[in-house]
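Before the break, one more example. Copy the sequence into your notebook; we will annotate it together after we see the structure.
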Amino acid sequence: MALIRFSPVLLLAVTTCAQNKMGSAAQCALPPDAGITSATGLVRYCAPAELAQRSATVQFLVDGSGSMYGFGADDTTRLYEWVAQSFSQLRDLGMTFTRTRSAYFAAKKGITSASARLVPGPGHFEGDTNLHEAIATSRDYDLTVILTDGVAASGTGNGDCSGGVDAACVARALRQALSPRAGELQMPQGGFWLLPLVTMYSGIFFSEQILANSEFDDARATSSVRADTSTNAEIGKREQRQGRLAYSYKGPRTLFLLVLARRAETGRALVAALASRSAGAQIQQLGRLKDYGAGLAMLTPIEVFPGALSSPIWADGRVGTKNYKPAVCGVMDLVFQAPDQLRIDCPNGSHTGILELTIRADVRASQCVQVAVLPTDSLSLSGNGSKMIEGFAWRPGGSGLAVKLTCQGEWRIPCGDGAAMVDWTLVPNYRASADLVVRGSPALAAVLIKTLSTNEPAYQPVRVPAFSALLEKFYREIAGWQITLPYTRLRLCR
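Here is what the structure looks like once it is written out:
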């Protein structure tokens, strides 16, 4: 039986008999482990009331290459103001900005038209992109937001990228940007997020694809736009630009906001601010590209790195059940005191029980965001109380953690500061993440990547050339990083 009082202290008195004639050991089985994230890879993040980082240097960079020319001035102005207002929301979380700038970037020009304000002035869009150079500047700022329409599909990207900006070149730039600076911890503490945006485009579309004008099939391209979205497209005059097909295009296209932060919590807070400010900026939030019909819209943000949940705050603990019966063995009294202490009492020696810890819901919904997480994470266990843990499993749907406890003989640990510690640590597997990008997955982040990426940009103008290749190569670049991220703690006493 389980008795639960509605107070910070929950008394869970359990008397069953998996160790005697009235039950079976099957009652003590952990539920199936659904992984550290939910089965869809979609997790909820809420910004804290105050950020741990109290001051920061921030910048907003806009791609000034020719492929950005066809995005309407009204949309780009709205995007600029949206980003600036989201930066301002960080001030409400106790942060001050010690240095700010906004600027455009393009090949052969570098970073131009820089301003101390976070809203760029009018831009002049021409030439190729130098996205790798824009990313490199993020090492000099605590928080960087980059607006771009993606990676150029041309070029070898070897060495210093002088052969052309491609996925491999940008992936290297991202790895270098996130690497620790002099004097920092050996392992990166920051993060990288992608916010996919969709809006209408009217101008020359640079396909970056070697294709003769006479070989191009207009109907195939317009059909793909209808398949990818709920809109139509118009294709006009064809031409060759540096040996690659370009054509007049009126229809939807994808943009990205890249967010790079030296501290992961700060970057997540900005992503949450962007999501909460989207309605005020008249930016629709869509679950999939196919739902796009008109206007300016954002899809679900993707946390590319580190790809982890924020640490939970436990709301309560309760005895796990199976078919509405307590899933425990023997006799065990459990008293859970929020947020992280569990008192165990085993009157007659060694017994086993399963405790379900439930995450506290955050009531500040206006500062929360749903984020698609791609990296494959595992949980590791450490601490002087870990010998009490026979096993654990993340609850399906990401609602909490099921912990299998063993009360071992005369084990005695005082409550309070002397309680035994059980620490869970997240260990991302970036090599497995790279494989996941290649082979695909039902997880939302993988579905988004597949939906937004193309190897035939001439025939899929809504999508981004080499997008999936960029993410795969980025994960290959950081596959050797041994990242460990503190996740949660439980204190045990008896």
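The two ends are 21 Å apart (CA to CA). The longest strand covers residues 244-261. Try to locate both features in your own notes.
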